[in-house]
Backbone:
């Protein structure tokens, strides 16, 4: 059985909310996207991505249960990418619109995750261990891999918001879907960088540890409130799913 909570907030600086999300505890499908492109472009891109992916995954639940997860998710992402490109065609003010995306699909005791960009998936274990499941597709992450930057410099670097893989590109390349085993009372958290730019892993883990027994929705509310208390410099979106 899955129980989830979710919250998306404009933050304290932005003029509109370019994040979008979808949750379905019955199907075990969760999608979060963080739009890019400014003005209304990012908002449109993230909503196209979430609506397209959620619709395809929801309609394909029987096939997902047959373990054809990777193929179905890749098809959904390719379709979302096509829809974003089609929407912005001939609209000069929307030519830069694009979006990150992170998806989690629960099948029995396994969670399947895939992402593009710097929206993240975490696994919070019942022994109070917080594990980042995704690696940001970002310029600064590549610089760390190349030895051009230290990992502890990521949080405050001026280029940290430049993503290297996203939906809304004519050269879409998709990673393989990752699978992780979950146990009773483990949690999966999906979030946009509006959360992780404000709160570090220790702060997130502390909120999960102290409040997950109350419920996932309470955790989401507290995470967003804490991020806003620390400046709320971007839109903040989070989904927390608990396996019971």
Residues:
């Amino acid at each position: 059985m899955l129980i989830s909570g979710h919250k998306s907030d404009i933050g304290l600086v932005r003029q509109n909310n370019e994040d979008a999300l979808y949750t379905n505890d019955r199907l075990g499908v969760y999608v979060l996207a963080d739009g890019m492109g400014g003005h209304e472009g990012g908002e449109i891109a993230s909503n196209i991505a979430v609506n397209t992916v959620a619709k395809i995954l929801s309609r394909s639940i029987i096939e997902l249960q047959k373990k054809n997860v990777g193929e179905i998710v890749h098809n959904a992402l390719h379709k979302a990418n096509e829809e974003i490109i089609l929407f912005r065609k001939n609209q000069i003010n929307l030519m830069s619109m694009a979006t990150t995306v992170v998806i989690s699909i629960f099948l029995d005791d396994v969670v399947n995750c895939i992402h593009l960009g710097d929206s993240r998936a975490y696994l919070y274990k019942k022994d109070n261990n917080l594990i980042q499941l995704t690696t940001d597709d970002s310029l600064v992450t590549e610089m760390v891999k190349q030895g051009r930057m230290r990992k502890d410099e990521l949080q405050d670097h001026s280029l940290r918001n430049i993503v290297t893989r996203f939906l809304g590109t004519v050269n879409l390349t998709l990673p393989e879907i990752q699978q992780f085993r979950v146990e009773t009372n483990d949690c999966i958290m999906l979030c946009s960088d509006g959360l992780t730019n404000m709160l570090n892993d220790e702060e997130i883990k502390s909120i999960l540890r102290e409040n997950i027994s109350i419920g996932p929705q309470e955790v989401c509310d507290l995470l967003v409130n804490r991020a806003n208390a620390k400046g709320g410099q971007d839109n903040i979106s989070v989904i927390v799913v608990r396996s019971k």
About this structure: The helical segments are 41-59, 61-65, 69-88, 139-145, 193-196, 201-211, 216-229.
